[in-house]
Amino acid sequence: MFSGSPRANSWGYVTGNVLTTQPAAAMGTSFTADNATWTSLVTGANVAYDCYEMVININSAAVSIAATNIFFFIGVDPSGGTSYTNLFGSFGLPAPGATAWGTLASGFWYTIPIFVKAGSQVAIKAQSDTNARTGRCCIWLRGRPSRPDLIRWGTTGVSFTTAAITPGTTSEGAWASIGSVSSSQDGFYVTGGVDISDTTMGGVAYSYDIGISSDSGTTVESVCEGSIFNSNSTEGASQIAYGAWVDAKGGTDGIYGRMQCSGTVDSGPNLNVLVVY
What we know:
5-stranded antiparallel β-sheet; globular; 2 domains; Jelly Rolls; mainly beta; 19 strands
């Protein structure tokens, strides 16, 4: 007879801004990418417990025959007011040409183990490289873990790096240096995002890998494999971003990325990596 293993962690609480919303093309809270305005997503009254994981969806930002290059930030105010601490550093996370809900994977998805204190107000701010684009944001926060001893989360220590990548087609592209792990602390989680500024996307698929190297790229260990980014011929895009738990040594390890494309590469893809501390 097999002995039972200890129960895995489960979340006992979830909150967010679309929990009771009927699915529709206009899903989530509308925002304008003006690099100035914080738009509230979840009020402090609706964060009843400490939360340790954040799921984010950005959608409805695509504009045909136009570059829709959007970077967004999530801010938290533990006092439930409007003085936000940006969790994602100075670069933000990309969501270029995010499609409407229900089309082409419903835009861009990220899952990040980040702490949000009970009673905090959560908001979004975004910027775009062409005019003040608009989009929509859905967010879910998870808390009340059944096994707190099994979870790890970041607090305010989040760093963001970005670099141009040359995707391969018939084979993987070469590893390219993206940045270095902060010298002051070790990173424990990575996730990525593709950024493309192209007015004539080709309707192709990309996969990308994130790697870590302790010897300046001579040997790269792939730690996050096969995240998917898709574009369409009307400048829409979507992404399912896979994250990975890592042991990234501060002041020693470098972050690397590589990509592969199913066909003709769109103009200027960048790979962005978020390191959580």
